[in-house]
Amino acid sequence: MTHTISVIQQKGGCGKSTLTVSLASILAGEGHNVIIPDTDALRSSSLWAEQEVASRGEIDHVHETNDNEISGLLRELQGQYNYTLVDTAGFNTRIAAYVAAASDLVLIPCTATIADIQGAINTQRFLSKLSAEIGKAINSAVVRTDFKRGQINDDAISAKLTEEADLDVLDAVLWQSTTFKTALNTGQHLRGLAKAHSQELVRELRSKRLIPPAITHKEAA
């Protein structure tokens, strides 16, 4: 059974592609087969995925910006992959509504800015309205991206985020690290701090039962 996760935020520059690539790298590294449908015209996620990198795991990709095609594509991918990770350009398009409706989980990235907080709030309102319209619950959670440890401003942003009753803010943070940018630019899987932060995020998603358990590798008899 395919588990579909979409990454949606109203505002650009909030780390949507970084979050998508991070999840893909960790999940594929565990042995899951993953596909990234990239609906963003900038193609950051699919450009990362299309680079041939040995030992990165099984990661396929497809670029689709036609809102009339995305629902059919996601249905077609059901059962073919363990995870479908959809990178989006934001929610101010019809394609985001189709993607969110087809998702088992929507992750909302947020950097340490007031504009991103408002973008996260607006995105959650969009998801709540969509959920009521389609009569289906849409699981969602906020992921803090590119935050700096110990920075007064970043701590204040975190506090403000957690005060928003409608937002489920995850404890795990994709802290600022040059290793995220290195992975995006080279197509490599995550290393160092970027890998550690992303693994922590995946563990929390599993602990909250927002994604399925890891693959269990059976020992040879």
Write the layout of secondary structure elements.
Blueprint: E1 3-7, H1 16-29, E2 34-38, H2 44-49, E3 59-63, H3 70-77, E4 83-87, H4 94-101, E5 105-110, H5 114-134, E6 140-147, H6 152-163, E7 169-175, H7 178-186, H8 192-207
Parallel strand pairs: 1-4, 1-5, 2-3, 2-4, 5-6, 6-7
Helix pairs in contact: 1-7, 1-8
What's a concise summary of this model?
With 221 residues, the protein is of the alpha/beta class. Helices cover 43% and strands 19% of the residues.
Structural class computed from helices and strand pairing: alpha/beta
Strand arrangement, major sheet: 3-2-4-1-5-6-7
Number of domains: 1
CATH homologous superfamily descriptor:
P-loop containing nucleotide triphosphate hydrolases
> What share of residues are in beta strands?
15-25%
What would the CATH topology be?
A: Rossmann fold
Main beta sheet strand tally, sense and closure:
7 strands, parallel
Question: What percent of residues adopt helix (DSSP H or I)?
Answer: 40-55%
Average residue pLDDT: 91
* Architecture (CATH level 2) name: 3-Layer(aba) Sandwich
CA radius of gyration is 16 Å
What does this protein structure show overall?
- The protein is an alpha/beta fold and 221 residues long.
- The chain has one domain (3-206): P-loop containing nucleotide triphosphate hydrolases (Rossmann fold).
- 43% of the residues lie in helices and 19% in strands.
- It is built from eight helices and seven strands, in the order E-H-E-H-E-H-E-H-E-H-E-H-E-H-H.
- The chain has helices at residues 16-29, 44-49, 70-77, 94-101, 114-134, 152-163, 178-186, 192-207, and strands at 3-7, 34-38, 59-63, 83-87, 105-110, 140-147, 169-175.
- It has a seven-stranded parallel sheet, sandwiched between helices.
- Helix 6 (152-163) links the parallel strand 6 (140-147) and strand 7 (169-175).
- The radius of gyration is 16 Å and the shape is globular.
- The chain starts with a strand and ends in a 14-residue tail after the last helix.
- The relative contact order is 0.19.
- The mean pLDDT is 91.
